[in-house]
Design brief:
The protein is α+β, with helices and mostly antiparallel strands and about 120 residues long. It has two helices and six strands. Strands 1-2-3-6-5-4 form a six-stranded antiparallel beta barrel.
Length: about 120
């Protein structure tokens, strides 16, 4: 598949981004397996077909390392046809957002310097 779209300026990001892959599900009338390319406490990049409409709200279940299955609600920020889409998590309880950031920090530490080039704050 094609490379993901260019990332936003890294100085604009609030949360540390962890390169995947990670497994997940787009929860709808029929759950769809998704391939999470990267995730942060603020959102994720998903490689999947079919692709949703930008601006729509959806539910995801992500298999987060050290945490297990987590269900999150997100807004689709953009879609790159033939590749996938970016989601910003919304209505995340503060304690869960802190836990997701802690997981991201732990994963990046374990991945070493190579991961830090791809990860910054979102």
């Amino acid at each position: 598949m094609d490379a993901p779209p260019p990332a936003a300026d890294i100085s604009d990001r609030r949360y540390r981004r962890v390169p995947g892959p990670f497994d997940g599900w787009w929860l709808g009338a029929l759950p769809v397996a998704v391939h999470v390319r990267d995730f942060s406490a603020g959102g994720c990049l998903i490689q999947c077909y079919p692709e949703p409409t930008p601006g729509c709200r959806l539910s995801l279940e992500l298999d987060v390392p050290f945490l297990g299955a987590v269900t999150l609600t997100g807004d689709v920020l953009y879609v790159r046809p033939g590749y996938g889409f970016a989601v910003e998590f919304v209505d995340v309880p503060p304690a869960l957002r802190v836990t997701l950031e802690d997981v991201a920090t732990r994963l990046l530490r374990e991945m070493g310097p190579a991961a830090s080039v791809q990860s910054t704050t979102n």
